[in-house]
Amino acid sequence: MKKAYIETYGCQMNVNDTEVIFAILEKAGYTRTEDIEDADLLMANTCSVRDNAEQRIWGRLDYFNSHRKKGAFIGIVGCMAERLKDRLLDTGKVDLVVGPDAYRSLPRLLAAITPDSPQIDVLLSRDETYADITPVRTDKNGLSAFISIMRGCNNVCSYCVVPYTRGAERSRDAHSIVREACDVFRKGYREVTLLGQNVDSYLWKGADETVNFAALLRMVAEISPLLRVRFATSHPKDISDEVIETMAAYPNICKHIHLPVQSGSSRMLEKMRRKYDRQWYLDRVAKIRSIIPDCGLTTDVIAGFSSETEEDHQATMSLMADVRFDWAFMFAYSERPGTLAHRTMPDDVPEETKKRRLQEIIEQQNTISLERYRAQIGKTFEVLVEGPSKRDPGQLCGRASNNMMCVFPARDLKPGDYATVTVTDCTSATLICK
Ligand code: SAH
Ligand code: SF4
Ligand code: F3S
């Protein structure tokens, strides 16, 4: 057997794609290795969402080239492969370029590859969902599995490269999703995360049935009360009352919603083509909290998008102060070639201003996160035991339903058990429990 080494960048969907790629590579006679020097095939599954994501990968490509054993091939797959196509081959550093919808051609491409004839397939598809492929799980503890329920994206947020790298949105056969979730549960997994760029627009039409996201959540939640269900990412314009009510109805659907807001300014949201405004977002949050009072809530924010004024920035700050997210992923705007914003909206906020606004956003959020975590002291949670805590191997760790990480003294508990803990202290990212 030959050996394949894959590094994964970008979102959780890419993590799951790497698992699909390993499954496809098995058919071509490759097993997985975590040792770069031993690999016959070195691949990076890449991300294009921001320029710094791509810069990191260029650096890794040079590293790959200096560490490959004789005769080994180097591949770039994923979003950057799709965006740059044969420009990657022109660098002379890459033997294989494969886009997110073309992984089934890997065995054919690998059979054809020689040092003088690199191979490429970056065709996007209207219907590929890899529904029939059983991913080779790469998680460390055999507990928590990612399951892609859809691919691509039909929104055209003006700043975003994803619709160009991932193609049109398509939903995967609901029964294949349930089968995969059942299969991992039988293998001992206790948590599945259903993945899509916009899970609320999931819609699968079978011969005589139509399944929306709320119905899919019910189907997966009913597999077993011991199987936790998580999902990401929700879109504020599409998250429905039915989804929120479904979450409330099933104890094993985790009470956490990742709801990227991007900006608190309605003028920015309009330019970003997010199709909601500040008030709509605040109303969705109010609805979530009225149905699930303790729902964990996290978000994504972009600082310094085209033409953003100090007033727009303050609108983001005040929205975040009002909503009080548990946690946020915060980014400086990075102009992406080919997007609507790149074509029609100048990247005109000076770099120092972007950095300063981002810093203000981060500092405010750090304070809020600490307060949100502190507010949990005294509460009791059920956690899914993951294993030893990273910081202190004498302690165990596991997440509460609201996605907060809990650390607690080791008893005779093993990964996959559920434990009831009481919060006694915290940091801005961990609950310390007994
Ligand atoms: N589908 C998800 C987001 C996917 S990309 C959604 O619609 O919310 C993940 C995050 O990267 C986005 O939420 C956004 O905050 C950020 N992002 C996307 N494009 C970006 C860009 N050009 N510059 C900076 N951040 C960006
Ligand atoms: Fe990008 Fe918008 Fe699609 Fe999210 S919904 S992936 S931000 S285009
Ligand atoms: Fe990045 Fe592609 Fe995911 S651009 S964020 S890896 S969909």
In the CATH hierarchy, the architecture of the domain at 2-121 is 3-Layer(aba) Sandwich
Distance between the termini: 48 Å
Low-confidence stretches: none
**β-strand amount:** 15-25%
CATH superfamily placement of the domain at 2-121: Response regulator
Fraction of residues in helices? 25-40%
Give average pLDDT, whole number.
97
Q: What is the CATH fold-level name of the domain at 2-121?
A: Rossmann fold
- Briefly note the structural class of the backbone: alpha/beta
CATH class of the domain at 2-121: Alpha Beta
Describe this structure in words.
This protein is 34% helix and 24% strand. It starts with a strand and ends with a strand. A hairpin with a 3-residue loop joins strand 20 and strand 21. Helix 8 runs parallel beside helix 9 and helix 12 runs parallel beside helix 14. It is an alpha/beta fold and 434 residues long. It has 14 helices and 21 strands. The protein has a six-stranded parallel sheet, sandwiched between helices. The protein has a five-stranded mixed barrel with strand order 17-18-19-21-20. Among the domains are: 120 residues, 3-Layer(aba) Sandwich (Rossmann fold); 54 residues, OB fold (Dihydrolipoamide Acetyltransferase, E2P), CATH 2.40.50. The protein binds S-adenosyl-L-homocysteine, iron/sulfur cluster and FE3-S4 cluster. Iron/sulfur cluster (SF4) binds next to helix 6.
Features:
single chain, 434 residues, alpha/beta, OB fold (Dihydrolipoamide Acetyltransferase, E2P), five-stranded mixed β-barrel, 21 strands, globular, binds S-adenosyl-L-homocysteine, binds iron/sulfur cluster
